[in-house]
What we know:
Blueprint: E1 26-27, E2 34-35, H1 56-60, H2 64-67, H3 70-79, E3 86-97, H4 100-104, H5 109-129, E4 133-137, E5 141-146, H6 155-179, E6 187-201, E7 207-211, H7 215-225, E8 231-234, H8 235-241, E9 245-253, E10 262-270, H9 276-283, H10 292-306, E11 311-313, H11 323-333, E12 339-341
Parallel strand pairs: 6-8, 11-12
Antiparallel strand pairs: 1-2, 3-5, 3-6, 4-5, 6-7, 8-10, 9-10
Helix pairs in contact: 5-6, 6-8, 10-11
Amino acid sequence: xxxxxxxxxxxxxxxxxxxxxxxxxxxxxxxxxxxxxxxxxxxxxxxxxxxxxxxxxxxxxxxxxxxxxxxxxxxxxxxxxxxxxxxxxxxxxxxxxxxxxxxxxxxxxxxxxxxxxxxxxxxxxxxxxxxxxxxxxxxxxxxxxxxxxxxxxxxxxxxxxxxxxxxxxxxxxxxxxxxxxxxxxxxxxxxxxxxxxxxxxxxxxxxxxxxxxxxxxxxxxxxxxxxxxxxxxxxxxxxxxxxxxxxxxxxxxxxxxxxxxxxxxxxxxxxxxxxxxxxxxxxxxxxxxxxxxxxxxxxxxxxxxxxxxxxxxxxxxxxxxxxxxxxxxxxxxxxxxxxxxx
Length: 342
């Protein structure tokens, strides 16, 4: 039996995934009720577990192409041929409705979908807002990738921002439902960054991929141990998003399936940064080494500009030669508005 969370192929009689620990119960396509493996009909509403969703809202979640915005569909289909077999650095996001079984218990299937669908829509909207890809909708939650199939250098930052947007959006929706006398929904989110190998992308945008190491497993575990209304991230994600987000260290936490603990952090907010350079500077810049001649040239240009002579400074060099660090030096020296730096 293939796990819906991490795609691990488990033995037929398994009830929990041996890779990520997720329950292998079958979610009813009509009401979302979890049913034991092997059943043919839902024990809550009687609907066929093999039948496709019969409601309009479920049809909307039937495939990635059905719920992915058109501008992202075009980008993915344009780039998919170049991704086959490629190893990608990504950030994986898992989000689900905390205590969904209790929340949806004893509700009519249509009423349950009326409550659940807006939560799923808000989850997906936040992911798509930052150009992530929702590649699985799993009953009461989603799995999304940032960095594949659409490549983004800042995939971890985008994933963190999307997680915060999800929590904010669902919280506002919860306020609305509470005013109508319904228990407000709460979600939990988990993030982890690592490598995946993209095998292929179908015409319906379903992506066949292989996770390298524990990429998806750790993301799923972060979601499972997160408290309602919180976002947990791993150290791997924090290293890529440091300087852009505020976190609260939770210390080392045990992870099912791993022999060692991992450092986990609760994502509590975003840092208002305008550029990568500002985020880098907040962590501390490396001391200039072997750039005395260049800095002297910049200083002389500044003095000539201060004396009334217009100046243009250009930075040219091989990749990795330190132009970024020098450009920061240019900005620090160019306090006089008459000095133009290109």
